[in-house]
Every structure is written in C-alpha cells, then in structure tokens.
UniProtKB/TrEMBL annotation:
Domain PPM-type phosphatase: 131-347
Protein name: PP2C family protein-serine/threonine phosphatase
Organism: Nonomuraea antimicrobica
Domain of life (superkingdom): Bacteria
Keyword Hydrolase: yes
One Pfam family, short name: SpoIIE
Lineage: Bacteria, Bacillati, Actinomycetota, Actinomycetes, Streptosporangiales
Record-linked InterPro entries: Bact_Sigma-Reg, PPM-type-like_dom_sf, PPM-type_phosphatase-like_dom
Keywords: Hydrolase
Length: 360
C-alpha cells in the first residue's frame, strides 16, 4: 500500500514513509493514475502485471489530502465498497492525527521552508471545501517562502465567511502582521459583527500593535449560500473577478477604504447577487504586479486570458485554482518577488438546512 500526500506546491503526490508502506518517487498530479484519482475525486483502476492497481482519493469530508493506492488480484463491487470505506478512514486518521506528529508535514515538503512560511501555513484552514451549495479553493505562492499573504473562511449556518489578506513587507515581520490580522478577523467574525465593524476591529488591532507605519491590505466577504447574495469590503486589494460560463464578465469594482491599520473611514459594504455556477476570484496584487527587470507588469488582462484558458479545461474549483496558479507562475517566468495568492469561490445554489448531515 502507498499513501500519497499532496505537496505544498500542489504539483506532486509524495509517498508517506512508514512501516508497511511503499515508498518510491513522488508522482505528478497531472499525468499520473494517482493524480487522475486526486483530480477527479474518484477511484481509478489500472491493470498491472499482478492484478488491479486501485487509486482512491483520501477525502476527509470535502478536504482532499491525497491518494491511497494498493493492488488486488481481482476487484468486485464488494472490494470497491470496502476500499472506499478504508480510504475514508485513512483520510480521517491523517487529518485528526497530524496534530500529534510532524511526519505528515515533513512528507509534504520537497524543499526547505522559511520560518515565515511555517507560520503562515499553521494559520490556514483546509485549502479546499465543497458542499452542494458552495465550493472554495485557495493556493499561495511561493509555497515555501510565503510571508505576508493569508486566507481564511468559515461556514456558519447559511453564511460563508471569507477573508484574503496581504501584510506589508517580507519575511518574519510580514508573517507576524498577517498572524495578528487573521487572529483579529476570526475574533470579530465569531462575535457576529457586520463587515464594516469587522474592518474597524481589525484596523484597531493592527494600529494598536504595530503603530501607523505598518498595514495589511484585505478583503472580507460574506456569501449567503442559500440566496447567492455576496457582500464584501475592500481595503486596498484588486477588485475580485466575476466568472460566468468560464468567461470573466466583469471586475467587481466598488467603493473601498484604506488598508487595515491606517484608520480608514467606515467602509461601504459592496453587494452582488450571484447566479448559480458563478465563480468569483479574489487575489492579492502579487498575482498581477510581478514583472521582470525593466519589463511591464503581468497585469489584469493576462490574468483574465489565463482564467478563460484554464476554466474550460478543468472539472472543479480546486483543479481550476491549482492549474491557474501554476499557469500564471509559468507565464511570469517563475518569478515570485512578492507573495501571490488566489481564492476561488463557486456558488451552486440551494440551502444548508441539514448542515449537521454534511461531513465537513
């Protein structure tokens, strides 16, 4: 048996070492049987010399952590049912036990990680979630050296709460700024305050801790997953992009306010009613402001072209976020002088009256 975990770059599936587990080289997510099972979130069976090689996605609720693979001499429907149950158990063990060991984190690393990135990864929720009403996926680059970017979300009853932040600077200072910003965001969110009050709370927390010379750009959003009513406050970020039928139909422009920590005016809450299957891309400026020495910035137009190229070629929000980030990285020549993060949300419609029955 092999247990393959997604690496931090979301490029490879890396074997988890352990007694009784097969090792071997990492496998690419794109272009391998294991990767196909991961992308499609379904069991893939492949004929090998000694039987049938089965690849099963490791899903803990809607969080996909990797793939389990083993070979049977033959496979019937009972085997498939038992294999799916085993994969679910393994995924649950990986998620619940990773707080007691470093082995899972170490297996996912394919290069050294900075202390600032270590801090940022410790703050993150699962980078993908999908339920019948809504799906989200995020990715951050450079994965092993990210410092100021972070994202967060929580699904509370019918409301999906989201935030994307970009702390000024680089290295440890940016990581500390981001930590305080995310902590303040979660504290205010859990107090059930409105978006304008949430901004004010975060702004005060950053100002009190760091003074007037340091700041965090941010977007805080709320999506009613029953009605598709989206609200957001923009504090210094690029406008989110509305995607419909794999086309960017507009940037969601609207009044903004100063970055968090600068004591901006009470922000206006922007609103938009989404249509079923609409996607909204929130991103940090590093995605479009990167440029080679003496060259022009990457720019929003190239970002839109990349979205419309990748969208029709991907099946899920998670796959689109991953492939879009990697395509943009290639088009920027691999340059990441600043953090570059994206957070993609798809509204599917419906209600969440039975959230207790959903295995989040």
């Amino acid at each position: 048996m092999s247990i393959l975990l997604q690496d931090y770059d979301q490029i490879m599936l890396v074997p988890l070492p352990g007694k009784g587990l097969m090792g071997g080289a990492p496998l690419p997510i794109d272009g391998s049987w294991a990767g196909e099972a991961f992308i499609r979130e379904t069991c893939i069976e492949h004929q090998v010399a000694d039987g049938i090689r089965m690849f099963l996605p490791l899903l803990d609720g809607s969080d996909e952590v990797g793939v389990m693979a083993f070979t049977l001499s033959s496979v019937d429907d009972d085997d498939r049912r038992l294999a799916r149950r085993l994969a679910g158990l393994v995924a649950d063990m990986l998620v619940t036990k990773n707080g007691y060991t470093d082995q899972f984190f170490q297996a996912r690393r394919r290069k050294p990680m900075s202390v600032a990135a270590e801090i940022q990864w410790s703050l993150l929720p699962p980078l993908s979630m999908a339920i019948p009403q809504v799906a989200v996926a995020g990715i951050m680059e450079p994965a092993y050296n990210v410092a100021g970017d972070s994202l967060d979300y929580a699904l509370n009853d019918e409301v999906l709460h989201m935030a994307v932040i970009d702390a000024m600077g680089h290295g440890m200072n940016a990581a500390v700024l981001a930590t305080v910003a995310i902590g303040a965001y979660r504290h205010a969110r859990r107090g059930n305050v409105g978006l304008a009050e949430l901004y004010a709370f975060m702004d005060a927390a950053i100002d009190e801790q760091f003074g007037p010379d340091q700041f965090v750009t941010a977007q805080m959003m709320r999506l009613d997953i029953g009605s598709g009513h989206l609200q957001w406050v923009n504090a210094g970020h690029p406008a989110p992009l509305l995607i419909r039928d794999n086309r960017v139909i507009r940037a969601l422009e609207g009044p903004g306010t100063l970055p968090v920590g600068f004591g901006g005016a009470t922000p206006k809450v922007n609103t938009r009613r989404l249509m079923r299957q609409d996607r909204v891309l929130f991103y940090t400026d590093g995605l479009v402001e990167e440029h080679e020495a003496g060259g022009e910035q990457f720019g929003e137009e190239r970002l839109i072209n990349a979205i419309e190229h990748v969208g029709p070629r991907t099946r899920s929000v998670q796959e689109m976020a991953r492939k879009l980030s990697h395509m943009l990285m290639r088009q920027r020549g691999g340059a990441t002088s600043d953090d570059a993060s994206l957070f993609l949300v798809e509204w599917r419609g419906g209600t969440a009256d039975h959230l207790a029955e959903i295995d989040l």
